[in-house]
Write a structure and sequence with these properties.
There is one protein chain. It is built from 6 helices and 3 strands; from the N terminus they run H-H-H-H-H-E-E-H-E. By secondary structure, it is mainly alpha-helical. It has 2 domains: 87 residues, no CATH class; 83 residues, no CATH class. Helix 5 runs antiparallel to helix 6. The protein is globular. The N terminus is likely disordered.
Length: 200
Amino acid sequence: MTATTVGQALGTNATDQISSPSEQPVYTVFSDASWAVTHPTVSDMLGGHILPIYNNYIEGCTKAATEQYNTPHFCADDEITRLDMNTYQPKSVYNYTKMGYQKIKTPPELFKMIRDFYDANRGKDEIEWKTINPYHNMWESPPTIMLTNQEKWEGGGRILQNKIWDAAREVLQEWSGHKLNPVSLYGIRLYHNNSILAPQ
């Protein structure tokens, strides 16, 4: 098996910039096989096709950050932050259900509201993230978004946002067994051809 680390992907100079308890220099049974999730090691156990994609992803981020910010180690440092969040955040979250997730159909009323908003604003979506980071390849194929809470979007605004919250609340409360209060609702995020969203 072959493996790489973020430091190796960026070159020997970047290796010195990476110091994290989550980094493992040698591939083990605990390493990530599909994409770097908890440490910057990707094995070829799935046929070797993920490793070049991941390397190109990190190299593309580094090139973009160097050109825009003149910081060649920015992506390596930020990638370690992403990996550490994947390692430590789950341990701080309370599980409300034994399974942790449930797959259901979206309630028809809720689906219609979201679909109507999407159809009314199709083609008006805007780039959401304009700063370089290793969470997605926005330097190559930036994700876009339609914000449901803003009046500038046809049918959007606080009224739509509250309706979506109300329509989703009952299902989520039944699933979790707890009374819930709304915290945040962004909108419809769109990923395009060649878009990559790093696991987090």
